[in-house]
Amino acid sequence: MPPLPRILVLAAAAALTLVGCTPSAERPPAEIRSAADEVRELDGVVGVEVTRTTVSGPVQGNFGQQEETPPSSVDARVELAESLDPAAAGDAVGEAHRLLAAGAERVDPLENVTVSAEFFAGSEPSENFTAGQPWLSVRAEDDAEPERVAEATEYGYELRATGAESVSLGVTSGAEDPPTAWASVVASSADDLVTLARKAIELDRGADLEAPGIRYESASRPPDLAAVRLVVAAAGRPDVRNAAYVAGQPLTIQSDAAPGAQSLADLRSWLEARRFATADHPLAYTVLDAEYTEATGWVSGAVPTAHAPHTVPLPAGTKAWPDDDAAPACTDDDLRIAWAGSDAATGHRYGLLTARNVAGNACALEAVPGVTPLNGAGRGQDDVSIELYAPGVVPGRLVVPPGETASAAVEWGAMSTANDPDLTTTLRVVPQPGTAAVEVPVSGRPESRGGLDVLDGAALRISPWVQALEGYSPAR
């Protein structure tokens, strides 16, 4: 089915009430009412309710042309029989979607109307709504194919039969290759949640799963059963209030235990002993105590390969300087520290410190240089934090030959200079432990414009001393 020129959106029931809208005295367009009558005749359809709501004021005159009506929204709610088998439910919704789309296409554009619809089934008791909420709600993008909407509805009935308490479904448009369907599924218990995950895997469908104290989201992919079992087991640990697994994010566990409680230590030990993750497929965790203090780590104790301690690699094609176990540590007199300049990209700044060996012999650097930004008055910028250059990066022993220059990158996020703040004009640099601090001017270069936008509250990422850095011009 080609994309429709009219807008047909399958939306949740909440779309029936638009904030600030006023009811229109006009009936829905005849084309929509006619389509609704056809939908009522379909097997499995219990009823159809169609309403029209004006969404803004009158349209101004248009130079004698036929007057448009004020913009309005027409909403169709299609109720399905709960007793339908999954295939019959899919057939009913697919045909209803086609009929309503055709009706919307026939509406005169001057009616100035958008059409939305919800397909739903059943009503479950609810603490928040006295009338209860449907256990099934189906939504789709405007040009979703009826066949895809039918398949999603069939999936919803399959999940209900497997024990789902409620199911919200959606379908992407045919523009996505391949189009996908997703489901947000609520289960009444942890056991039901695992059973529903198995059903989604069996049907090769995406499912986000929720049960009391448990949330699992898989970004529209079929669930990972091992991950579902992990979050369910974590939720059952002593003092745990809730546990959430969201694909691509850390496993997050909220505990009611006070800081320092033994159950928190036991929980972390339990997580790190699970046979689940590997260094190539790691999963971080975050545990929050009753005061929301965070403790982090890695499930299965599997630290990602990229986070394992490692030095900064040399750029491809760069020949490493000779190593010399006998080379002494570089001293104050051995080095000339300078600022090689800075560059910018969207929202980021990149600068380079250099350390030239001016001694007659090789000497060794093995450190991340200490850096303190100073303003024009020589005062340190407030609340500046120093962060790891990259996960797992540690200093390596670098033997600098006479006359050669080592480099250390300094990176930070762009900061606003709109109110003429005190820019950083000098960096106080301690090359490595045991050496004296050196004050390095940074404001004399054309690109600095009087200083660097390293202001109060800045966060600096500083690399260890290296021979060369990928992405940076060689130090001179």
Short description:
The chain is of the alpha/beta class. The chain has helices at 30-40, 86-106, 146-162, 190-203, 225-235, 262-273; strands at 8-10, 22-23, 45-54, 72-80, 113-121, 136-140, 166-171, 181-186, 208-211, 214-217, 240-246, 251-255, 284-288, 294-298, 335-345, 348-357, 363-365, 370-375, 385-387, 398-400, 405-413, 424-430, 438-441, 459-462.
Tag the structure with descriptive keywords.
about 475 residues, alpha/beta, five-stranded mixed beta sheet, 6 helices, about 30% strand, elongated
Helix-strand blueprint:
Blueprint: E1 8-10, E2 22-23, H1 30-40, E3 45-54, E4 72-80, H2 86-106, E5 113-121, E6 136-140, H3 146-162, E7 166-171, E8 181-186, H4 190-203, E9 208-211, E10 214-217, H5 225-235, E11 240-246, E12 251-255, H6 262-273, E13 284-288, E14 294-298, E15 335-345, E16 348-357, E17 363-365, E18 370-375, E19 385-387, E20 398-400, E21 405-413, E22 424-430, E23 438-441, E24 459-462
Parallel strand pairs: 1-5, 4-5, 6-7, 8-9, 10-11, 12-13, 19-24
Antiparallel strand pairs: 2-3, 3-4, 5-6, 7-8, 9-10, 11-12, 13-14, 15-16, 16-21, 17-20, 18-22, 21-24, 22-23
Helix pairs in contact: 1-2, 2-3, 3-4, 4-5
